[in-house]
Amino acid sequence: MSDAWICEFTRTPIGCYGGALASVRPDNLAVAAIQGLMERHSQVEWATLDEVILG
User: Fold this and answer.
1) What pLDDT sits at residue 6?
2) Cβ atoms of residues 13 and 42 within 8 Å
3) Predicted TM-score of the model (pTM)
4) What separation in angstroms does the CA of 20 have from each of 17, 24, 45, 52?
5) Burial call 10-26: b when 16+ CB within 10 Å, e when fewer
6) What is the pLDDT of residues 18-52, one digit of tens each?
7) Whose CA is closest to 30, among 7, 9, 5, 2?
8) Which of 3, 10, 11, 28 is least surrounded by CB atoms within 10 angstroms?
């Protein structure tokens, strides 16, 4: 097994049931969070990333 690293966390917006974010898919919110991490850590070789765990 390879080493595992936690580089940082980021949060997505929180809304109320039926609110402004009701039409936004959860996977699209995850993409926004991952893109934010990639922008903040541009020195990381993201092509070598095998797996992302969201929770």
Assistant:
1) 66
2) no
3) 0.65
4) 9, 8, 35, 27
5) eebeeeeeeeebeeeee
6) 888 888 888 888 888 888 888 988 888 888 888 88
7) 9
8) 3
Does position 7 have pLDDT exceeding 70, yes or no?
no
Q: How many residues can be counted in the chain?
A: 55
Chain center to CA of 46? 13
Q: What is the pLDDT of residue 41?
A: 87
Taking CA 31 as the corner, what is the angle to CA 24 and CA 49, rounded to the nearest 5 degrees? 160
C-alpha 33, offset from chain centre: 3
